[in-house]
Amino acid sequence: MRHPLKFVSSSALALAAVCFHLQAQATPPKPFTTHSFADIRARHAGVPLVVHIWAMSCGPCLAELPKWGAFAKKRPGVALVLVRFDQAPAEASEARLARSGLEAVESWGVSGEADEYLRASVDRKWIGDVPRTMLIAPDGDVTSIRGTADLSRVEQWVDEVKAARPARGH
User: Fold this and answer.
1) Which residues pair with 31 in a beta bridge?
2) Which of 71, 124, 147, 166 is the most buried (most CB within 10 A)?
3) pLDDT truncated to tens, each residue of the chain (170 aa)?
4) What's the 3-state SS for the chain?
């Protein structure tokens, strides 16, 4: 005869594993094409926009993702868009984003090789280095950060841009 406590314990573990698996899945990334960056900018026009470009094959990118998760949690009203710029399997990147607390953040992913046309659609001068963060002001002005971003500076930028915006209806 099975011990009832053992049965409950193993059932609880199985349920916890299923719940973890469900939580560890982020929304599948939208396919990123040469038109996607323009679409992202148009959809978020008029508000401060942070676009973070990363790759599964980039160690600093992976180390930085949990910090972006904390940023998204601390600043839920900020338009944050993630773009995975390598050919990693979607399931792996979804799981990585979920573990980093980014499952609810708008996410895009390159499905083919990131060629010069794709890079140029983001920035004509960009050579493809990651991580890269683009701070896009409501007036369209872009500030690019090469390498790992200092998120306190990103927060400061968001605050400055929001403070500079005129109040609506005035």
Assistant:
1) 109
2) 71
3) 554 444 444 444 333 333 444 444 567 899 999 999 999 999 999 999 999 999 999 999 999 999 999 999 999 999 999 999 999 998 999 999 999 999 999 999 998 887 899 999 999 999 999 999 999 999 999 999 999 999 999 999 999 999 987 655 44
4) CCCHHHHHHHHHHHHHHHHHHHHCCCCCCEEECCCHHHHHHHHCCCCCEEEEEECCCCHHHHHHHHHHHHHHHHCCCCEEEEEECCCCCHHHHHHHHHHCCCCCCEEEEECCCCCHHHHHHHCCCCCCCCCEEEEECCCCCEEEEECCCCHHHHHHHHHHHHHHCCCCCC
CB 130 within 8 A of CB 58: yes
Asked whether the beta carbons of 41 and 110 are under 8 A apart, the reply is no
Both structure tokens of 104: 């609810």
